[in-house]
Design goal:
There is one protein chain. This protein is mainly beta. The protein has no helices and eleven strands.
Length: 119
């Protein structure tokens, strides 16, 4: 059974840093892409950053230059390094993985991890 396990959310002061991690556990899959989304209560879930299996990355304009997504393919793990955090970065951060199992592609989500940035 495939699962995404996240860690790293915390309470931090503005200007501080956090590193989120997300590991895909299970077997019989290959990773097409992984990413991080965030959601504030009552609002839609927005893409923050994404990395493909080729290593190409995308960062939302709101986090460009402050956040960096990276991956360790050997560990099936994706990271989000968040620097210069702002109160508006406060949200629940969700890991997402697009996986190939057999001949089909599936989307998986982590349970979410809370990031709170105090001013």
């Amino acid at each position: 059974q495939v699962q995404l396990v996240e860690s790293g959310g915390d309470l931090v002061q503005a200007g501080g840093s956090l590193r989120l991690s997300c590991a895909v556990s299970g077997s019989g899959f290959s990773i097409n892409a992984m990413g991080w989304y965030r959601q504030v209560s009552g609002k839609q879930r927005d893409l923050v950053a994404r990395v493909s299996n080729t290593g190409s990355t995308y960062h939302a304009e709101s986090v460009e230059g402050r956040f960096t997504i990276s991956s360790d393919n050997a560990k099936n793990t994706v990271y989000l390094q968040m620097n210069s955090l702002k109160p508006e970065d406060t949200a629940v951060y969700y890991c997402h993985a697009n996986l190939r199992i057999g001949t089909l592609w599936y989307d998986y989500w982590g349970q979410g991890t809370q990031v709170t940035v105090s001013s």
